[in-house]
Design brief:
The protein has about 250 residues and is α+β, with helices and mostly antiparallel strands. Helix content is about 30%, strand content about 15%. It has two domains: about 65-185, OB fold (Dihydrolipoamide Acetyltransferase, E2P) (Beta Barrel), CATH 2.40.50; about 190-253, no CATH class. It has five helices and ten strands. A hairpin with a 2-residue loop joins β6 and β7 (about 150-155). The termini are far apart.
């Protein structure tokens, strides 16, 4: 009996010592290390995700300030509203197209011009605005400049589509007077009338919209008051908009 008791005690003491060493609850300190590791790594994962998101947003725009000419403001932002065919908002700033003008929304062609610009440059698009160095005072609270969106010049596109006209009266007061698109649509160093040249005397490269006499294809934007001819044939696209009522006869009154 004594021998059995000694054996039980002899076995029980080492077991008790082992239990104490383990921690009494059956878990060693090593069992808690994965939980501690998870806790410390979680914030790093969040920071990494945040850094990637921030880095992505910085590289979204393909424009840089070096894409602007002159010394006036160079604005890179997103379109927040299309006002009409020649005015949009970029980061809530109103931007008026330099030299290019579209009809008002309540006028013929106004809604088409707005829809056209919206198709080229929808809300949310990245844009670059090159402010006109010679018109930094703006117009009615709007910044005046050339707007680039989706790699196209919106000022030029509006004119090329015959949905607007070039405001030739502002050529001499615009930084963009000598840019190719402005020259193409009528910004010349001197207007036809300034040169003292009769429209009928200029026979080279006549605009096919006016077959009864010759108006140069590259000429300033003209109104009926600028020419002596009345009630003449007008064909599409009528870049000078002599035929306001679209009946094929220009400058009827």
């Amino acid at each position: 009996m004594k021998k059995d008791l000694v054996m039980i005690v002899g076995i029980g003491v080492p077991v008790a010592i082992l239990m104490v060493a383990i921690g009494g609850g059956g878990h060693s300190s090593f069992d808690f290390e994965p939980e501690d590791k998870t806790t410390t790594e979680q914030p790093k994962q969040t920071q990494s995700s945040s850094s990637q998101s921030s880095s992505s947003s910085i590289t979204q725009s393909s424009y840089s300030s070096q894409d602007c000419s002159g010394n006036a403001r160079c604005i890179i932002g997103k379109v927040t509203e299309i006002i009409d065919g020649d005015t949009i908002k970029v980061d809530s700033k109103s931007i008026r197209f330099a030299l290019s003008s579209a009809p008002e929304l309540n006028e013929s062609g106004g809604a088409d011009a707005r829809k056209f610009i919206e198709g080229l440059c929808s809300v949310g698009s990245d844009v670059l605005v090159d402010e006109d160095d010679k018109q930094t005072g703006g117009s009615y609270g709007r910044i005046i400049g050339v707007i680039y969106c989706n790699k196209v010049n919106l000022n030029e596109e509006l004119l090329d589509a015959n949905l607007g006209h070039l405001s030739s009266g502002f050529c001499s007061t615009s930084e963009f007077e000598n840019h190719s698109w402005a020259q193409k649509h009528g910004c010349m160093t001197s207007s036809v009338t300034d040169l003292g040249v009769s429209i009928q005397e200029t026979q080279n490269d006549c605009d096919l919209s006016y077959p009864d006499f010759c108006i140069p294809s590259i000429s300033p934007d003209l109104d009926c008051k600028d020419i002596s001819q009345k009630r003449f044939t007008v064909l599409a696209p009528d870049p000078h908009r002599f035929d306001g009522d679209k009946d094929g006869i220009g400058c009827e009154s």
